[in-house]
Amino acid sequence: MTTEEKIKALRDELREHNYKYYVLDAPTISDYEFDVKLKELQALEVAHPEFSDANSPSLRVGGQVTKNFETRQHTYRMYSLDNSYSKDDLLDWEKRIKKLVDGEIHYTCELKYDGASISLTYENGELIRAVTRGDGFQGDDITTNVKTIRSVPLKLKGNYPPKFEIRGEIILPLAGFNKMNEERLEIGEEPYRNPRNTASGSLKLQDSSEVAKRPLDCLLYSIKGERLGITTQIENLEMARSWGFKVPDAAKVAKNIEEVLDFINYWDVHRHDLPYETDGVVVKVNNLQQQEELGYTAKAPRWAIAYKFKAESASTILNEITYQVGRTGAITPVANLEPVELAGTIVKRASLHNADQIEKLDIREGDTVYVEKGGEIIPKITGVNLEQRPKGSQPTQYITNCPECDTTLIRQAGEAQHYCPNDKGCPPQIIGRIQHYISRKAMDIEGLGGETVALLVENGLITNYADLYELSVEEVIPLERMAEKSADNLVQGIERSKEIPFERVLFALGIRYVGETVAKKLARHFKSVDALMLASEEELMIVDEIGDRIAQSVIEFFNSQENRTIIDRLKVAGVQLKISEEQLANQTDVLQGKSFVVSGVFEKVTRTELKELIENNGGKVSGSISARTSFVVAGEKMGPSKRTKAEGLGVPIITEDEFLEMVG
Ligand code: AMP
Ligand code: ZN
After folding, report:
1. What is the pLDDT of residues 547-579, one digit of tens each?
2. CATH architecture of 83-142+154-308
């Protein structure tokens, strides 16, 4: 095989595995095998730029930066959809269209995916352009970013026409969205608001390698082109699927509005089981000839209508807007509402997110507002009833100074949130940092709770976490509600935290963007805080998954003289600021690149010890079995469904002893 053939073969192979994993959700090789092949391809491509290909699977990881997204004209206008909210609305629509076309009308019913619309152009089976909806006539060219979305085919399969456009929706599935938010919360950032906004925000990131990290997905629903030989909408979907696109199989043909309603009623209940959000159903006339006869209004096709599911919503009065300061100094405006019942709970507060949101909705104190509860946990305000606005009401002036310490707030370019920069003097920031330090996933200090931390700070006993180690029982006793016994417990709890391993101490320090996982990685790599403090940006970025944002934040943290003094004091106190000898001796790379799922009860080690063993030896622990799992370590009482899944995917199941042998 020549090098060129070898490169081509690898690309074909990777493309196929990619398709099986991301479109069919049925992978046939492990994560590790995939990575090995990908690395092989990347190495060959670097050595042979003459065989480059703008649609190589290696481009999925991104890397290109777009400074300005260019405007592109749509060949076929991207319309909006008319909405309906009831059976009557649908019957009215049916009546209208029956006057305009002859013959029986069948409908396709599809889910309405809640994301960002996209139009993809393919020529000779290759993706050449991806454009946002924009104003429907023209949108932004976001091709580089879209190429990183694994379920968007870069090259097609099957019998496709030489040139066409395909429409769909880029979505962020709930699992991925929640995971992103867990990570945000862990590093002290405001969570993202909802999957839809996060999906469309992600598409406009300048650095495509950042987009590549977001678990985006793309669901398609319509092909546009000349002489495609397609006669119905359902064929449209089947055709797209056969060329390698991801087309959900919920779609169905209904022979009349009654059947449409059956579909709607079914999905109104079952939509909560879907891995992504839908806000309704799209009903389309199935026959494309009839569609053409029906045509378009100024904004939307006459041949389609969206049916919107009802969100749980209520209206109430906004009494006051208050502002919260988080541990990183981020300011969150909060709506304090007249209590109202919504989806079975009493709602008193809703997040207003940031200044832009308040301005966009023009929310003012005293307004009657609409509150909704969607898939997210925190209720949101979706609008204002302007008719009930009190006379003389004034637009909300966003605060300019910190409500807690009066420092002038700052807002960095491109950031939605205002921040209080007074990190060393602003009480909620001081308290928040110490609360994070003592929290369960960090130093897990027993006998010390969040409220006591606040009390200690307010009484001037501590101002940072190093001060904890100098607290005495006598100092603590005079505090309100503090009995001798609990004062003892508190001091003992602090004493015991000196045993907490380095990786958790590193997480506890509360360095911005350094969550649990990143802390583990840094601890494993640098082994001590001293080595970490000396690391340059380049040295930090060598570590797997550490990008420039985290690297800069680490450097900034250790550049502060105050932080360095605190670290020195922790060291003197005896807190673990390096990996223990024992850990060091136990650390190997024998499981590098392997991913494990642990299931059941074990004899010689606990589950936690088993997981530690995996990580200490360079392996990854994952919660669920996929074809990318290298091994399942099975103990007693392993769940039967896990076993079936592992066997079905051909993932080897090993015993505790076999595992222990592996790591020696
Ligand atoms: P709207 O933005 O409310 O006017 O709704 C129209 C949008 O719904 C379209 O631009 C599509 O992006 C989106 N959409 C989601 N799912 C579908 C679907 N199955 N068929 C057509 N449009 C859809
Ligand atoms: Zn402040």
Report:
1. 888 999 999 999 999 999 999 999 999 999 999
2. 2-Layer Sandwich (3.30)
